[in-house]
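Dihydrolipoamide s-acetyltransferase (Nannochloropsis gaditana), 130 aa
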Amino acid sequence: MLAFASRRLVVAGAVTRAGTRGALPRASRPKYLASTMERATFASLPEHTVVGMPALSPTMTHGNVAVWHKKEGDEIGPGDALCDIETDKATMAFEAQDEGAVAKILVEEGTSDIAVGSPIMVIPAPPPLL
């Protein structure tokens, strides 16, 4: 992380004015830097929904993606099986609830120990009706 403080370039972890190693003092840090960068980074993306690992049972905390039935770019509709999710007790199909398409798969087939709610895929928002 780079920042300007007292007319000299300070690099986080470098020797500061007080002679100690470490990050910049709190007063010298730019406020809201991360949120500004986040907004600027994602401002050019179309509207989308990030789909998290579903809780297929009340006690499920982690799961595994066994097989993807859809690929990136495939159209999906209500009831279509997106992937098979393994729990400690069973393997179940995770089905689509709405129409759309698979924009990006974030978790590879065979990935294990994924926490419930962790992002697994991205679905773009449907185009507005005219």
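The longest strand covers residues 62-68. The CA atoms of residues 47 and 94 lie 23 Å apart. ok done for today
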